[in-house]
Amino acid sequence: MDWLWWVGGAVLFGILEMLSLDLVLVMFAGGCLAGAVAAGLDAPVGVQFLVAALTSVVLLATLRPFLLKRLRERTVLVETNAAALVGKEAVVVSTVTVEGGRVKLNGEVWSARVDDALAIPPGTEVRVARIDGATAVVAPLVGG
Asked: What ranges do the domains of the chain cover?
């Protein structure tokens, strides 16, 4: 009846995996199932633990990276915070030069600068090229 303990461990790891969602504990559940098979074949307890441990390590080293890669391919990356502002349009509030200036971006006033010697006057629409710390690096809209 040792195999029942192993199956119970696999179920417990499976439940905990549902809470963590990091694909580690499910690999331990797989190791427990391998231990249950070893117990079902009347292997000594030490061999059961060895089979469970080795199976868990093999699953962690081989199956988990494969599953994580597939999961990341299916999940769309949604930019958040400052990274989400790159490519957005803004309006110059005070003249923007290489030293600085201000733009209204996403409803907020941001410090801004340009990469070239161009000075952009207030009221001009610009596009955010990148965010550098708390400063939006902008460029004038082309054709608009």
From this structure: 2-74, 81-140
